[in-house]
Amino acid sequence: MAEIKMPLEPFRIKVVEPIRPVTRREREALLKQAGYNVFSIPADKVYIDLLTDSGTTAMSDDQWAGLMTGDESYAGARNYFHLEKSVQSIFGFTHVIPTHQGRAAERVLFGSVLKKGDIVPNNIHFDTTRANVEFLGARAENLVLPEAYDPVSDRPFKGDMDPDKLKKCVESKGAKRIPLVLMTVTNNSGGGQPVSLRNIKEVSGVCAHYGIPLFFDACRYAENAYFIKKREKGHDKKTVLEIAQEMFSYADGATMSGKKDALVNIGGFVTLDDDGLAEKIKNLLIISEGFPTYGGLAGRDLEAMARGLNEALDETYLEHRTAQVAYLGGLLDQAGVPVFKPFGGHAIYILADRFLPHIPRGKYPGWALTVSLYREYGIRAVEIGGVMFGSKAGQGNKEIYPELEMVRLAIPRRVYTASHLQYVAEAIIELHKNRDKVRGLRIVRESPFLRHFTARLEEV
Ligand code: F0G
Q1: Which atom of ligand 1 lies at the shortest distance from residue 382's CA?
Q2: Which class would CATH give 24-53+314-459?
Q3: Do domains 24-53+314-459 and 61-311 have the same CATH topology?
Q4: Distance CA 360, CA 364 (A)
Q5: Residues within a 6 A CB radius of ligand 1
């Protein structure tokens, strides 16, 4: 068997945060209290937290130094102009409108363009994106290629949108009902898979043909650009910055959650060229997020984001980041744990229905796996399957499940070392050997939107 190379951390540790394991008995009691929902477990009762890569980043010394230069003026803080400069130099759009995080950027953008009955195509909508679209009475359509749902196809850009599906969607619904097309990079809900430049160009061409603006959901743009450099022919000599600039040159704007590839704990923005739309967005922003030069953030947060955006394009950082994810994936794969391939940019996705074939979809195998991972090993992961994306839209209120039933092990940026990941791999491999003991669950309470955050379940 090929040896899996341990990724060497391109940083040394200056500040530490202790983590302590709690006993299995305590974890059992906590699960019961939490309604078997790991979102409701206090974080200091988690040993290794792979719930999300969002906002969980360790900032650099330079970013921490930047916090001290925060200008907390209500209007026109100097840090806003630093952020504006960073965003413009990478994204290339004129307007930079800060928000407190990605979903707030979605809300002010969609709130300014969507009407009831509109359609928003995407490769695959992330859950908050879908919820923000649906909240306005519009419909969210996923238009990826069929391979996106094939967890073993080795296609290097499974995040690509199907341009023919997009054309058909526009032809059948009419361009007037589609105020924008979105492209999520990387495609989080489809295994963290990148989108190729070729596809971006093609989709941009379709959008231009019908006069529909194209926006990026750009959370993980740096990871996507790095994959283009590594996997797409003809781009290996370019810098990741040049590739990112080229990606954005085919679009009309972007929403961004800074909590991913801007390497911050809080922050986001919308960026675009259209003056009229920017004005509408700012008007909406003022009601909920704040004045347009701070958008729900402190001056110091703007500074950390301005610096983090550039750090995320550092190729040594990106090389380690993707190697870390591939390291965990490789260890699991080699031991026969079913995982989504190829490995994406920010997480490893376990194929939960194959991991737990004795648990039917209606008893939520992905959720069951998250419960067992916490109970047995203190590891927190997130289900991306029937509880997150299931809906009672079938005949007679029958539940319909998404194509894939997965558990995501998201790797926070610059937080865990190779030995932490080794622990995670060993734990999952052991659980896989004892998988027959894992039980399914049923939902006892749920909310109408984004039910996974607050649902309560019990084991059956
Ligand atoms: N779009 C994508 C593709 C995301 O992954 C997220 C967040 C958002 C938008 C919303 O950004 O959290 O700053 O409001 N994803 C996190 C995750 C929560 O765990 O994948 P936000």
Answers
A1: 19
A2: alpha beta
A3: no
A4: 7
A5: 52, 54, 101-103, 126, 128-129, 184, 188, 217, 219, 257, 259, 268
pLDDT digits over 318-343, tens only? 999 999 999 999 999 999 999 999 99
Best residue for ligand 1 mutational test, from 99, 219, 380, 389 (most atoms within 8 Å of Cβ): 219
What phi, psi does 297 have (nearest 5°)?
Answer: -120, 160
Q: Which atom of ligand 1 is nearest to the CA of 184?
A: 3
Ligand 1 pocket: which of 57, 101, 103, 220 to mutate (most atoms <8 Å of CB)?
A: 103
pTM of the full structure: 0.96
Q: How far apart are CA 149 and CA 270, in angstroms?
A: 29
- The residue type found at 455 is A
Q: Which of 132, 257, 264, 408 to mutate to test the pocket of ligand 1 (most atoms within 8 A of CB)?
A: 257
Residue 221 corresponds to which tokens in the numbers above? 């743009």
The mean per-residue pLDDT over the stretch 169-187 comes to 97
Residue ranges per structural domain of the chain: 24-53+314-459, 61-311
Atom of ligand 1 nearest to the CA of 187: 3
Q: What are phi and psi of 124, to 5 degrees?
A: -140, 130
DSSP conformational letter for 339: B
Q: Which is higher by pLDDT, 403 or 217?
A: 217
CA 193 – CA 117 distance, rounded (Å): 30
Structure token digits, residue 322? 């993707």
Average pLDDT on 380-384 reads 96
Q: Which fold has domain 61-311?
A: Aspartate Aminotransferase; domain 2 (3.40.640)
